[in-house]
Amino acid sequence: MLKMIPELNKATVRMRDRGQVETIIRNMQREGASALQVISDFDMTLTRFAHKGKRCPTTHNILHNTNLISEECKAKMSNLVAHYYPIEIDSSKSVEEKIPHMVEWWMRAHDLLIQQKIKKVQLAQAVKGSGAKLREGYKSFFKVLKQNSVPLLIFSAGVGDILEEVIIEHGVFDPNVRIFSNYMDYDENGVACTFKGELIHSFNKKEGALQNTHQFVHDRTNVLLLGDSLGDLDMAEGVQDLKNLLRIGYLNDKVEERREAYVSSYDIVLEEDETLDVPNAILNYITAGEGTSPGQ
């Protein structure tokens, strides 16, 4: 398989069980694109964690970095991150211990954003100047999925309105893409007045996310899952008649501290890798067929 997918031998790649990974990929290749769906996180998974030594913004950060919100609001948002982010990535705490803190974080952050009276028409311009970047290789990633009619379900704890604008800005909001995120609701003047639907945070993306997608992913029993946190691992729960699941995790920072937890949880771990090289190579192998060079 290394001949077919040499990207698996990159220095950034770690695998707990290479043989199991190869078996899963071969099973997926055998059943082809028609049996496949891709489930992915967005911030720091499909988007870059950093570029040229500088952190790239998440969907929340994009708003934070504009003049759409006040300096007072920015300071309060920064304080929330300083307090809650260490809890989110603390490998000594269980998911159950973290969840109440995450709910509190998201609710407080959303309340602050709604107080800013953000207008929907301002969001596209906010994204244009934000520096938000999809990972290197994103064009190939979205193109292969679109050409092979493979559903891409994006589960994000970020701001859905901003997420959509980022994908639109990159020209890849294709018909096979579905987004489950925290969307703002607007009044008759186009001003954000609340967040609608159930709150989605780092550790509850599976809850209800798949309940309205059965028709969209009918009979697609193989899942390629992409995430960057341990909370992303269960995004495929609820997939009916799941046969093969390959979980790829981006380990973006605090690598030494978090490596063991990631390698023991994800099938493939990509350390400080700002590309989609490995997912692209696997997708191309699955969709191109045995004996065909996966290419780029």
TrEMBL record:
UniProt enzyme class: hydrolase
Domain of life: Eukaryota
Keyword field: Cytoplasm, Hydrolase, Magnesium, Metal-binding, Nucleotide metabolism, Nucleotide-binding
Pfam families: UMPH-1
Protein's cellular compartments: Cytoplasm
GO biological process terms on file: nucleotide metabolic process
Record's catalysed reaction(s): CMP + H2O = cytidine + phosphate; a ribonucleoside 5'-phosphate + H2O = a ribonucleoside + phosphate; N(7)-methyl-GMP + H2O = N(7)-methylguanosine + phosphate
Record-listed E.C. numbers: 3.1.3.5
Gene Ontology MF: a single term: magnesium ion binding
GO cellular component: cytoplasm
Function of the protein: Specifically hydrolyzes 7-methylguanosine monophosphate (m(7)GMP) to 7-methylguanosine and inorganic phosphate. The specific activity for m(7)GMP may protect cells against undesired salvage of m(7)GMP and its incorporation into nucleic acids. Also has weak activity for CMP. UMP and purine nucleotides are poor substrates.
Assembly, per entry: Monomer.
Family named by the database record: Belongs to the pyrimidine 5'-nucleotidase family.
Protein name: 5'-nucleotidase
Origin species: Hemibagrus wyckioides
